[in-house]
C-alpha cells in the first residue's frame, strides 16, 4: 500500500540610484519592477549543475528549479512536482510533475528531463549529490508527468534532496550526447525558473529578466533582477547605504556594519532564509599529529575558548554558541551532550593530563573578511590564556582551500552548510570513508571511530524517525566527548533589505529562490 502525501505549491520598482555599468535602459525599467541585489564574490559560472558554490546558487536559483522547495520548517512543497508518494518499505518514491512547464527556449519539460538530470548529468557533475545518490538503484519515467525512484535500501533524508541547489533540473534536449563541461549553454543557461538569463558584464553585474512562460501564475512579481559585483567590503556597505542596492545577502558586508546599516531609513534586517543550509562553524583540529591526537588536548581547546564573547564581538550577536556537531536546525539535533563552557582551570588541567609540553601550534584563519579575522584573534588569545602557544598563519582564499584540502594545517577555522538532515551535511565531517584529500568539506581532521561510522550508517538507513533519532543521539554523545573538531557557532547570517521590498524571504533557502515571490511597494 502506498501512503500519499500531497505537497502544496508556493503559490513599481523603487527609485534607487544606478550603479556604474548598468545600462541606462535598465534604469528606466526600475519603475516597472527591478530589484538590485549584491553578489559576493562574483560567481565562477552560472551552470548550477556544474558549479554549486554560494554565489552561483544565489543567481542561478532563479534560472533553474528542482522538483521541490522547502519552507523554514524544512517541510517540502511542490515546485516542478505537485505530489509525491513513498512505499511502506521506504524503497520507492513516485513524483507527479506539474503539467505545462516549459524550458526558457519554449521546449516542454517532462519526466525524461528528470531521469536525464538525475541519472546522467548530475551523477557526473555534482559531487555532493552523487554521494547522496549512492542508495539510488534506478530512476525511470512512467509517463510524461510521472517519475519513479527506486532505492537499494531505505535512506531517511531522500526527500530532502530535491531542492534546486542539490538537484537542479537540466534540459535533456540541450545536454544529451554533449560534453557537459564545454556545452555553449553553460554560458547562457536555460532552465525552467521564474527568471531568464539576459546578460553578464564581468566585474559589474548579472541581469536576469522575467520568464514570460513561467508555470506559476502571478510570478515573478518583478521584471528584472540585477546582481551587482562589488569586490570591496566598504564599497558594498556604501552601496546599500546610498540606496544603490536593495538587497544584501548574509555575509556580503562585515557583521559590524550590519547594525548601522539596518538603522538607515527604509532599511531592515532578517536572519530568516538559512534554515535549509544550517551554517555551522568550527576549529578543525588535525587529529593526525600531536598534540591534537590526544582527546584530552582537544577537550582543553574547547574549555579554553570564550565562544559567548566571540558571538558578541566577532558576530555582533548574529550567531549562537554551538552545542556540538549538529546545528539546531538539523533534524535529530540533541542537547543531551557534553557541555563545554569556558573554564580555564579545567583547560589547564586537561593540558597537563595530555602531556602538553608547550610546543607551538599554528592557526589558519578563514580569509573571508575582517569579522573572521577578529574571530581568529579571539581564538588565539583564548588559547594562549590557557597555556597553549599559538602562531597565526594567514593566507588568501585559494591558499586556504589548498592547505585545508591537503591537510597542511594544525588548526583551521571553517564553516559548512549542514543541510536539513545529518546524513546530508553532518556525517561527511566525521565518517572515516570521507577521508580524502582534495576537498576542505569532508573529514579533513582525520578522525576515525568505527562505532561513529556505524551509527551514522544506521541513522541514514533506518526506516523510522524513532530509530534514526536513537542512532544520532548516541553519535552526538560520542563526538562531544571525543571532540574531533572544536565547535564554534551556528551562524545566523543577516540579510539587509529595503522595506519597499515586500516578502523578500519566503523559503528555507532564502534569497536563493525567494525574490520571484517578492514585490516592490
UniProtKB/TrEMBL annotation:
Residues 1-28 form the signal peptide. It comes from the Bacteria. InterPro entries: Peptide/Ni-bd (IPR030678), SBP_5 (IPR039424), SBP_5_dom (IPR000914), TAT_signal (IPR006311). It holds the Pfam family SBP_bac_5. Residues 75-433 form the Solute-binding protein family domain. Keywords: Signal. Belongs to the bacterial solute-binding protein 5 family. This is ABC transporter substrate-binding protein. It comes from Comamonas squillarum. The lineage of its organism: Bacteria, Pseudomonadati, Pseudomonadota, Betaproteobacteria, Burkholderiales.
Amino acid at each position: 500500500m502506498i501512503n500519499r502525501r500531497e505537497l502544496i505549491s508556493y503559490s513599481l520598482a523603487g527609485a534607487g540610484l544606478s550603479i556604474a555599468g548598468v545600462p541606462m535602459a535598465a534604469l528606466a525599467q526600475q519603475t516597472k519592477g527591478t530589484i538590485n541585489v549584491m553578489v559576493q564574490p562574483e560567481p565562477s559560472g552560472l551552470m548550477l549543475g556544474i558549479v554549486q558554490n554560494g554565489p552561483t546558487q544565489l543567481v542561478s536559483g532563479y534560472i533553474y528549479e528542482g522538483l521541490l522547495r522547502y519552507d523554514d520548517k524544512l517541510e517540502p512543497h511542490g515546485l516542478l512536482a505537485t505530489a509525491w508518494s513513498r512505499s511502506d518499505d521506504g524503497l520507492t518514491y513516485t513524483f507527479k510533475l506539474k503539467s505545462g512547464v516549459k524550458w526558457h527556449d519554449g521546449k516542454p519539460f517532462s519526466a525524461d528531463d528528470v531521469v536525464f538530470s538525475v541519472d546522467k548529468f548530475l551523477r557526473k557533475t555534482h559531487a555532493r549529490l552523487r554521494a547522496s545518490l549512492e542508495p539510488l538503484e534506478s530512476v525511470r519515467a512512467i509517463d510524461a508527468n510521472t517519475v519513479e525512484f527506486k532505492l537499494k535500501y531505505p535512506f531517511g533524508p531522500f526527500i530532502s534532496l530535491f531542492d534546486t541547489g542539490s538537484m537542479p533540473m537540466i534540459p535533456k534536449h540541450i545536454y544529451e550526447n554533449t560534453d557537459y563541461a564545454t556545452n555553449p549553454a553553460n554560458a547562457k543557461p536555460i532552465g525552467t525558473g521564474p527568471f531568464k538569463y539576459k546578460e553578464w558584464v564581468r566585474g559589474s553585474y548579472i541581469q536576469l529578466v522575467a520568464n514570460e512562460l513561467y508555470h506559476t501564475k502571478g510570478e515573478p512579481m518583478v521584471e528584472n533582477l540585477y546582481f551587482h559585483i562589488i569586490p570591496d567590503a566598504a564599497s558594498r556597505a556604501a552601496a546599500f547605504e546610498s540606496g544603490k542596492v536593495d538587497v544584501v545577502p548574509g555575509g556580503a558586508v562585515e557583521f559590524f556594519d550590519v547594525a548601522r546599516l539596518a538603522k538607515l531609513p527604509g532599511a531592515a534586517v532578517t536572519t530568516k532564509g538559512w534554515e535549509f543550509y544550517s551554517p555551522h562553524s568550527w576549529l578543525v583540529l588535525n587529529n593526525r599529529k600531536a598534540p591534537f591526537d590526544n582527546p584530552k588536548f582537544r577537550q582543553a581547546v574547547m574549555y579554553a575558548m570564550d565562544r559567548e564573547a566571540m558571538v558578541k564581538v566577532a558576530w555582533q550577536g548574529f550567531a549562537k554558541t554551538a552545542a556540538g556537531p549538529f546545528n539546531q536546525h538539523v533534524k535529530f539535533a540533541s542537547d543531551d551532550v557534553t557541555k563545554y563552557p569556558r573554564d580555564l582551570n579545567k583547560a589547564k588541567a586537561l593540558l597537563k593530563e595530555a602531556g602538553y609540553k608547550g610546543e607551538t601550534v599554528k592557526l589558519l584563519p578563514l580569509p573571508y573578511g575582517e569579522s573572521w579575522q577578529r574571530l581568529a584573534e579571539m581564538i588565539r588569545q583564548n588559547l594562549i590564556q590557557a597555556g597553549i602557544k599559538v602562531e597565526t598563519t594567514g593566507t588568501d582564499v585559494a591558499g586556504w582551500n589548498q592547505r585545508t584540502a591537503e591537510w597542511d594545517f594544525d588548526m583551521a577555522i571553517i564553516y559548512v552548510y549542514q543541510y536539513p538532515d545529518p546524513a546530508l551535511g553532518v556525517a561527511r565531517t566525521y565518517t572515516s570513508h570521507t577521508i580524502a584529500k582534495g576537498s576542505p568539506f569532508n573529514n579533513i581532521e582525520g578522525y576515525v571511530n568505527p562505532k561513529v561510522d556505524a551509527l551514522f550508517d544506521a541513522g541514514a538507513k533506518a526506516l523510522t524517525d524513532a530509530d534514526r533519532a536513537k542512532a544520532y543521539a548516541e553519535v552526538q554523545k560520542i563526538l562531544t566527548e571525543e571532540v574531533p573538531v572544536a565547535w564554534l557557532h551556528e551562524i545566523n547570517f543577516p540579510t539587509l533589505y529595503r522595506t519597499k521590498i515586500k516578502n523578500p524571504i519566503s523559503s528555507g533557502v532564502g534569497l536563493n529562490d525567494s525574490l520571484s515571490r517578492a514585490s516592490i511597494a
